[in-house]
Amino acid sequence: MRKCVVASGILIEGGRALMVYHERLGVWLYPGGHVEQGETPSEAVVREFREETGLVVEPVGTTLGISGDGVVEEPLPFAILRETVRYPHETHIHYDLVFLVRRLGGSLNNGMWISEAELDGLETYANVRQVLRRAFSAVR
Is pLDDT above 90 for 88? Predict the structure, then answer.
C-alpha cells in the first residue's frame, strides 16, 4: 500500500478553527496536504495553507533548545497520525504531521471558521474532531 507524508495545520483565532472542504473525500478538514519532494513538513504546511486558504502561516510548537553545527530546530508537530485514506479509486496511508500554526498575513479566500461547540455537527472524521478538541484546549 502506498504511504505518504502529509503536513496539516490548525489555525485557531477568536475561539474558532479554520476548516476547508475536501472535495474528493467529501468532508471538512484542517488545511494540509502531501509533502513534496525537496520540501520539509514545515514548508509543506505553509505552502498548503496558502494554496488552500490564501493565508500565510507559520508552524508553532515546542522546541527542545537544540542548535549548532548546521542544526536548525523546528517546532514539534502537535500530533502525528497514521491515517488510512480511502479515495474513490485508491486507498493509501498518510503519515500526517499536524502543526498548530499562527497567521502572519494574507487574505482569506476559502474556508469556514468553526467553534468547538460546533464540532459534533461538522461533517468530518472522528479523529479530526479529537485533534481539534485537544487543539482548542491547548490554545486556551
Answer: no
* pTM (global) more than 0.90: yes
Q: Comparing C-alpha atoms, which of 26, 33, 30, 19 is closest to residue 86?
A: 26
Residue owning grid cell 503519515: 95
Distance CA 32, CA 72 (A): 23
